[in-house]
Design a protein that fits this description.
Elements (H helix, E strand, L loop, with lengths): L1 H6 L25 E9 L4 H16 L3 E10 L5 E8 L2 H13 L1 H11 L3 E11 L14 E9 L4 H16 L6 E7 L4 E8 L2 H12 L2 H11 L2 E11 L7
Antiparallel strand pairs: 1-3, 1-4, 2-3, 2-8, 4-6, 5-7, 5-8, 6-7
Helix pairs in contact: 2-4, 5-7
GO biological process, one term: mitophagy
Family: Belongs to the NipSnap family.
Protein name: Protein NipSnap homolog 3A-like
Length: 243
């Protein structure tokens, strides 16, 4: 697995060295909005799409803050990108989207070439868990794991309470970069983003945490509130602020 994860980074070496507009803080603000966008790209156009994004990402980050930009390597739909953007408010996002629609350079150099390559696009608006401080993200390259869980209606308070009690146990081995709950999009859904140096480290962390009785008990209790879960392994692009 580790070899595969390292090899899949090779197509993105062309992106090395690009500086993107990064999030201003490594600690979350529960009042901020986070938009997670996902695009499924036609497989034959994936590399061309990534190259185009590399060339034009600065035009987009002139308007708002990019937190992270990844390609999906394992889990679910392939030829897929996921990125997270930060906004101060819904009003700011509306202003940004309006400005982008009027930005002729962005429209002519990126959008008109990008959209024909896209098979599907989705987005959700999230807010960070108010009880969890965003942790320091990787800055030198690695792999990320995005875990998305759906919980029973009316059970968010109980889920959060139990999670808060046990999160320190897991953080002894690896602390989540961030935890976000959907505001708009599929309801009753929470996303956890983990970072690792490589796939082997992920397996070691999972094994160690599963043998920790406090965390194992937390997982058992939290699972009683869940109806579904999904995990994806993400590879950060070289222009992603979160490496």
């Amino acid at each position: 697995m580790a070899i595969m994860l390292r090899n899949c980074l090779q197509p993105y070496q062309i992106f090395r060295g690009l500086r993107a507009f990064s999030c201003s803080s490594q600690h979350t603000n529960s009042d901020k909005l986070y938009e997670m966008r996902s695009y499924v790209i036609k497989p034959k156009h994936f590399i061309d799409c990534m190259r185009l994004t590399y060339e034009c990402i600065g035009l987009r980050t002139n308007h708002s803050k990019l937190c992270g930009f990844w390609a999906v390597e394992l889990g679910g739909t392939l030829s897929q990108t996921i990125h997270i953007w930060e906004y101060d408010s819904y009003s700011q996002r509306t202003e940004v989207r309006k400005a982008l629609s009027q930005d002729k350079k962005w429209q002519n150099e990126f959008v008109v070439h990008f959209m024909p390559m896209v098979l599907k696009q989705e987005n959700v608006i999230m807010k960070a868990a108010p009880w969890y401080e965003m942790q320091k993200y990787l800055s030198t390259g690695g792999v990320y794991e995005l875990v998305s869980c759906t919980f029973l209606p009316g059970k968010r308070e109980q889920l959060e309470h139990r999670w808060m009690q046990g999160i320190k146990a897991h953080s002894k081995y690896s602390a989540p970069v961030g935890i976000w709950f959907n505001e708009i999009g599929p309801t009753n859904q929470v996303h956890t983003l983990m970072s690792y140096k490589n796939g082997d480290e992920r397996e070691k962390v999972i094994k160690a945490a599963s043998e920790d009785e406090e965390w194992a008990e937390t997982v058992r209790d939290c699972n009683s509130f869940l109806t579904a879960s999904e995990t994806k392994i993400l590879i950060p692009t070289q222009f992603s602020p979160w490496k």
